[in-house]
Amino acid sequence: MATVYLVRHGQASFGKENYDQLSPRGWEQGKVLGSWMVDKIKPAAIFGGDLQRHRETVEAIATGYGAQLPDMQVAPGFNEFDHISVVNCYRPEWSDRQVMARDLATFPKPAAAFQKEFVKAVQRWASGEYDAEYAETWTDFKKRVLAAFDEMIEYADGGDVLVSTSGGPIAVMCQRLLGLEDERALALNSVIANTSVTRVLYSAGRRSLSVFNNYSHLEAEDPALVTFR
Question: Measured between alpha carbons, how far is 45 from 55 in angstroms, rounded to an integer?
């Protein structure tokens, strides 16, 4: 059986003007993963969404890998959902970044406060009760992620593949493989670590989840490298 390695991108730049770029820690996470991959993973193909953090994660992995890797093929279906739109629909006043920063600054841990609100925003989006407010509904998001996954499997034709993507698409792919309800799939999203590796085994029409959210490479290098946002 062949393997698909689903890699969540390195830590992005939360709170910065350009969230989509990797933080310095995100670059280090990618390099550590690349070093860990040597003699373990030799992908015949690499796919990724068209987000900057997906591309930079592959670049960081290649630096740590130290050997030639296939060029990343861009597949927008592996993009994360528009988290800014999802949050703004839940908290319209947060479309003004200064207002959001001011509100979050009142909490001892602004990042943790944002995470709580983010979870509520995603639950609202996924409920289906407010679909008219979103450019991409939860149902549509799942359809385009799974279509990208199926197309990638067909292209791979029995070869090992590495996919640089985000937590949302990984959760959706695991949802289908495990037959989970939406609530459980959303819960998975919140625990997927940056540059963690989820493995899917496939052969012909058979697909099985083998490993979920492995970030032992980070723990072995430096536990401080383990991040979830």
Answer: 14
